[in-house]
Amino acid sequence: MSTQPASLLDYIKTYSLYVLPHHALTRIVFWLTRRESRFTTGVIKKFAAAFKVEMDDAIDSNLNNYKTFNAFFTRALKDEARPIAAGDTEIASPADGKISAIGDIHDARVFQAKGRDYSLLTLLGGDGQATERLGNGRFTTIYLSPKDYHRLHMPLSGRLTKQTHVPGRLFSVGPHTVKTLPNLFARNERVIAQFETEHGLMALVLVGAMNVAAIETVWDGLVTPPQKAAMSSKEYSDHNIHLAKGEEMGRFNMGSTIIVLLENPAAWRVDMQAGDPVRMGQFLAQIQ
After folding, report:
1. Average pLDDT in the 30-56 region?
2. pTM, entire model
3. Is 7 an annotated catalytic residue?
4. pLDDT tens digit sequence for 236-285
5. Is 234 exposed, middle or buried (0-12, 13-18, 19+ CB in 10 A)?
């Protein structure tokens, strides 16, 4: 797990946004991206060109057909566009994006960037039982940029047991912020989904960020917004919700980060490291 050291520019970019009203700005983005307007198609085309968005894999590749920016941003892909890692013990990437960090969890501390780690207990909203099970497990953090496909999928098959929403800030989760802002992922708003799998506990942490105007899960719909003042949890152990590997489990609006936490040892691909691009369904690791 290696990253380039933070530069002065990285610190300037991070802390210049520190005092902004993150939630207020983000809710404006939420409204704008769901509004139908005669300008919508033009904005979508300019965005797609600026960020080099690949549309060939989309079920509907015609930008003229998207009535809102959010419909374009959360577009569905053709089934054959993202093959899913096949073996029962193979872990699939949950998203298109870039690996921010990957490796082992040591004594309930998770690596963020060079010289920085953060508390797993805080990340999980104070869930001591989950922290105990995951505290010496494996993790990977995947950053989704604005150009990426923004639906999230299951790395392994599992049974949903719990969902927790943790309010927080909405700092950018771009590479410059990861390098410079301590405890970034444990400070931002996030939704934590816990699953029991054949290989132990798996937690998927969906991290909110500046302009990430919504976090959704397929079983609960839109979790945020509206902004909530207190942490909340929902138990699903008795709901019999099973999701297969590769099945959609949630969505982001705009770019953000998903963290995969695994209880049991997994051997990550030796040719994969921080900074590498990944695609949803791609083979990431083998359960040992």
Report:
1. 92
2. 0.92
3. no
4. 999 999 999 999 999 988 668 999 999 987 899 989 888 999 999 999 99
5. middle
How far apart, in whole angstroms, are the C-alpha atoms of residue 17 and residue 87? 44
Q: Which of 22, 153, 165, 199 is catalytic?
A: 153
Q: Reduced to 3 states, what is the DSSP secondary structure of residue 182?
A: coil
250-to-83, 94, 229, 262 alpha-carbon distances in Å: 18, 10, 22, 18
Q: What is the DSSP string of 68-109?
A: SHHHHHT--B-GGGSPPP-STTEEEPSSSEEEEEEEE-BTTE
| Choice between 115 and 78, residue whose per-residue pLDDT is larger | 78
Local structure of 262: helix, strand or coil: strand
Identify which has the larger pLDDT, 47 or 8. Answer: 47
* CA dist 107 → 118, 137, 287 (Å): 11, 9, 20
**Lowest pLDDT segment from 158-162, 184-188, 225-229:** 225-229
Q: Kindly calculate the radius of gyration of the chain based on its CA atoms and give it in whole angstroms.
A: 18
Catalytic residue among 93, 100, 172, 256: 256
Catalytic, 153? Answer: yes
Q: What is the distance in angstroms between the CA of the first residue and the CA of the last residue of the chain? A: 20
Q: Of 138, 56, 68, 142, nearest to 98 (Cα)? A: 142
Q: How many residues comprise the chain?
A: 288
DSSP label of 169? B
> Is 256 annotated in the active site?
yes
CA–CA gap between residue 130 and residue 125 (Å, rounded): 10
| Residue of 10, 22, 96, 127 marked catalytic | 96
Catalogue the E-assigned strands of the chain. 90-92, 97-104, 109-113, 116-119, 138-144, 151-153, 158-166, 190-197, 200-207, 215-217, 221-224, 232-235, 242-243, 248-252, 256-262, 266-268, 277-278, 283-287
CB neighbours (10 Å) of residue 35?
13
Predicted confidence (pLDDT) per residue in 15-29, tens digit: 777 677 777 777 787
d(CA 68, CA 235): 34
